[in-house]
Design goal:
By secondary structure, the protein is an alpha/beta fold. The protein has helices at about 5-20, 75-95, 105-120; strands at about 25-30, 55, 65-70, 95-100, 125-130. The protein has a single domain, classed as Trna Endonuclease, Chain: A, domain 1. It has a five-stranded mixed β-sheet. Strand 3, helix 2 and strand 4 form a beta-alpha-beta unit.
Length: about 140
């Protein structure tokens, strides 16, 4: 399915947010699943699903998975399955998951992420839903 312009703007914001908040970890590789980005290709699959962004850090054995979701996409079953995979994988390796959504669904998304963590049986996954300006 082609990405919407809103999804593309969320991916752009997600990239900037991750770079601002994680720049001390000096990412050595970043993959961004966007047609307009000049990068080494799509992010590698995580348990069969491709995230929108994946940063691998140089000085820490940590990676950051970034996922952008719109009002429509956050409510579909495919997204739930994908987010469960990312949560479980991030918990296994102590990675971080950043989920960018429009401001008006950020509270819903935070609650959804808590429910999905509980559903996956993981407590210690680092998940952030940044507050972003209107897209």
């Amino acid at each position: 399915m082609p990405e919407s312009s809103l999804h593309a703007r969320l991916v752009d914001y997600l990239k900037l947010w991750i770079e601002k908040h994680y720049n001390q970890y000096d990412p050595i590789m970043k993959w961004i699943a966007s047609a307009k980005e000049n990068n080494p290709g799509k992010p590698p699959k995580i348990d069969g699903s491709i995230p929108d962004i994946l940063f691998k850090c140089k000085y820490r054995d940590m990676s950051i998975v970034g996922e952008a979701e719109t009002f429509v996409s956050i409510q579909n079953a495919h997204t739930y399955v994908q987010l469960r995979k990312f949560i479980t994988y991030c918990a296994k390796f102590d990675w971080h998951l950043i989920v960018a959504v429009p401001l008006d669904i950020s509270s819903y998304t935070k609650n959804l992420m808590k429910l999905l963590k509980y559903d996956c049986g993981v407590d210690r996954t680092n998940i952030h839903v940044p507050l972003i300006p209107r897209c």
